[in-house]
Amino acid sequence: MAMFSKQDIARIVSVDDRGELLALFDQDPDRVRRYLVRLAYDPDAPIHRNAIDCLRFLARERADDMRDFFFETIRRQLWSMNEEGGNNAWSAPEICGAVIAGAPNLYGKYFSFAYCAAIDELTFQPSLVRAYDMVASNGVSEAAEFKESIDSLRKKLENGDQPHAE
């Protein structure tokens, strides 16, 4: 098995080489997930959006055969949003949203968990809005019940108001 580093994954993500990403994922899915999550954590990093898109791509391509792996990805992000997890994984809702949007038939029902974990925490609210947009644009019906709340939150964020716990 060929070894690869975070820098290798960053290069692949930067140039959007989905074929190479998938090949490395098939070799070592845990390592690719670990590096993609690290690249996605900083919402202000230039590579953030591409890393999120790559997570969604991998879920779309491999979730049918690796259901537990992608469920574990969601579970880890939910855990990282609670106080025991350190409560500093700013992009955790988006990472959950990427997996859900990549395989909505398998994971759509988990959007409510991401919503509940993120809505009351100012740190997670911008990422929650982006997660909702990703999930809703993929037709996840379970996200519809949160539309009004997300729209209100989006308006507060756009106006520069300090979001409040819902």
Number of strands: 0
Query: How much helicity do the residues have?
Result: 55-70%
Please tell me how large the radius of gyration is. Answer: 15 Å
Q: Write down the oligomeric state.
A: single chain
Secondary-structure element order, N to C: HHHHHHHHHH
Main sheet attributes: strand count, strand direction, barrel closure: none
Distance between the termini: 48 Å
Average pLDDT for all residues: 92
Approximate strand percentage: under 5%
Shape label = globular
Uncertain stretches = none
Look at the helices and sheets and give the structural class: mainly alpha
The count of helical stretches stands at 10
List the helices and strands and how they pair.
Blueprint: H1 6-15, H2 18-27, H3 29-41, H4 48-62, H5 67-80, H6 92-102, H7 104-107, H8 111-118, H9 125-137, H10 147-158
What does this structure look like?
The protein is an all-alpha fold and 166 residues long. It has helices spanning 6-15, 18-27, 29-41, 48-62, 67-80, 92-102, 104-107, 111-118, 125-137, 147-158. The longest helix is centred in the first third of the chain and has 15 residues, at 48-62. The model has no long low-confidence stretch (mean pLDDT 92).
Task: State the gist of this model.
With 166 residues, this protein is an all-alpha fold.
Core attributes:
166 residues; mainly alpha; globular
